[in-house]
Structures are given as structure tokens and as C-alpha cells.
Amino acid sequence: MTSTFASATAVTFSSGVPADVSGIVAPAAAALGERRSLPLPERVQFSYTTRFVSEQVAADRDAYALVAGADVTPQAGDLVIARVSEIVNHKRIETETSRKAILYTDAIVALAYGHRYAADQFLAHVPGNLDHCHLVAAGGIAGVVTECHSKIVGPTQIEPLGLLTRNGEVVNVVDTAPFANTPVYGAPAGRPEVIAVLGTSMNSGKSTVMSCLVNGLTKAGYRVGAGKITGTGAGNDRMHYHDAGAHQVIDFTDFGYGTTFRQDFDSLRSLTVNMIDVLGAGNDLVLVEIADGIYQEETARLLRDGVFQDSVDQVLFAAVDALGARAGVGELLDAGLRVACASGVMTSSPLAAREADAVLAPFSVPVIGTFDLTDHEIASGLLVRQ
Known about the structure:
The chain is α/β, with parallel strands linked by helices. It folds into two domains: about 35-175, no CATH class; about 195-380, Rossmann fold, CATH 3.40.50. Helices cover about 25% and strands about 25% of the residues. The strands form three sheets. It has a six-stranded parallel sheet, with helices on both faces. Strands 4-7-11-10-12 form a five-stranded mixed beta barrel. A two-stranded antiparallel sheet has the order 5-6. β5 (about 90-95) and β6 (about 100) form a beta hairpin. α2 (about 205-220) runs parallel beside α3 and α7 (about 320-335) runs parallel beside α8 (about 350-360). It is globular and about 65 Å long. The termini are far apart. The relative contact order is 0.13. InterPro entries: P-loop_NTPase. This is DUF1611 domain-containing protein.
């Protein structure tokens, strides 16, 4: 049975999802059958989030196979080899090198199961079995969509063939990550200045603000390390940082997370500190971006955490309009954070920028145009440890 997508924002699926959603019907349950081992298909397109596994498969392909069956329960980060059964929202997949490869029906792709929080697209979760599900992020995340933005027709559908195994053990992206997210209970010692970039929501201009600041500080002669602490695995943002001149770029996928949504809070706190430690080791300054908006559950808690606050010197805030800038800056100041400036999408409009400048004047928080941050004097003038 083909999925039917309505204008409703909630979705009902056959397995492993919240029971209080309704509206969109998922594919009929597949005949999962008994547990079985299957050979790895000859041609598999590995995605950005699975890039470190791809390297190992290429080196020792005979060690890998698939496991399938009704009793196979995927976990966040497990690699799934899947067939693209219907192309809807995502028409491309991001490869290991961040190239946007065109998807075709029946293509075989390697993805990581993960939860996704994207207010402009989907709310998605890791399913309870290997039934049909969805490509929920072009960076290579598989999940079951339970809520959908009204502008989205529906998610691209996939048919899992099995979980990837190495010598009989299921492969998870954390197994091949270059960095370990070891438990941490305090702020990094001896770190350089750290600036965090946050925003009102998705598409408020955070990544562009971050990239422009990287560029300005690099022009000022600083060696800048740039990282993305939270979000959904994708190479686009890190490529922006790299193109802007960052000396070193990493993100949460380098620590073994396909996504950070629904990760336990201790892991997110440790990820913050460990990422700053890695970037701080060989750079003069560290810039980190936090995905989504400041009301996103994990972000809201992180901003008020003592270890996070001790790890960050100041923040830049990206907003879409003056109202968002006023509310967001107020929230950050109430949380005890120092706000260096407001910027983002609103600065594309001189009128919106002037409105924001007026309402932020009582907080002594300036509004700076996103691309003005590429000026070395403006960028270096924001530093607090000069």
C-alpha cells in the first residue's frame, strides 16, 4: 500500500512510534521473516554520516554482511543498508565527500538510524524494527516520520534490507568515529576563547554568521577551530566553515553521532567539552554552533548548564526579525550568558536591523550585519580576551 500524505502535521505508523499521532499512513508492514544473514550488495552509496564506516568496508569488504529479521531491533547510530522505494522530499543524498548525489528508485544506500528534530521539515524517530521507513535527512539518516511540516509533501521512502554487520556484530557509527565522547564533568582546562553561535530557529542564519565570523577572525590573523555541537548529520555547514578559512573543522559526527536529538544530557555536555578540547589544542580561538532554536529541549537545558557556561566566553545570536532578537537575547542574558551581538537573517533588511538595534539598545547588545563580520576589525573587536 502506498503512503498517503495529507495536510495534517501528525503521522501514524505501524511500529515503534508514539501512539498519539494521526494523519498520514505508512507503507504496509514488510514480510520481515526469520532472522537471517545476507551478503552486502555489490554497489552501495554510503552517506555523509556513514563515511568512516565506508572507509573500513572498502578496506575489508569480506568481513561485512547484513542481518535481517522480525526480531532485529535497530538502535540510534546503527548502519542500515536500504533500497530507495519512492522519492518524495529528499531527491539527493549527501555522499562521504559531501557531494549531493542524485537519488534513483531502487538505489541501495547506507544510512544511520537516528531521531530527527527539524521544525521546517520532520519530527522522526528510530523505529522498532526493519519495516519500511524514511530518509529523514540528506546527510544519511533513516527514521520514521511522525510529524511533517505542511509545506512538505512527504518523506522519501526506503526499504531496509538489513543492518550492516562486521564479523557478525552490528556496526554503529560510534564504532569508527575518530574521537571518543568520554564522560566529562567540568569545563575544559586551559582553553582558548570560545564563542558559541545560536539562533531563534532553523534558517535564522546561524551557519552563515558562524562562517562570516570565522572568515573575519582568520583575516585578523587568528587560527580558528570551528565545530558544530548539535544537529543532524550533514556536511554543508562544516564545508562553509572550511571555505571561510577555519584551520580545523569537526562536528558531532566525528564523535559517533548521526544526530544529537534525544541523546542523554550528560552525553551532550561531554560532547561540548570534548569538542572544545579537540579544537582548542591547536587553535587560537574556538567557534561552535548549536543547531535549531534556543527553545529546543536539549539546547534550552544546555544553555543553563554550569559546565556549558564555564566552557563558553560569549555567544552571537542569529534572528529572523527584531522580535525574535529581543526575545532571544533576553533569554540568553537571563540564562547568564554574555551576548556579543545579534545578527542573522534580519540584517538582510535595513529596516529589520534598525528595529532590532532599537530594542536591543537597553541591553547594550549591538546588531551587526552578517557579512560585516567578515571585516577583520569588526570580528576581532568582538573578542573578550584580547
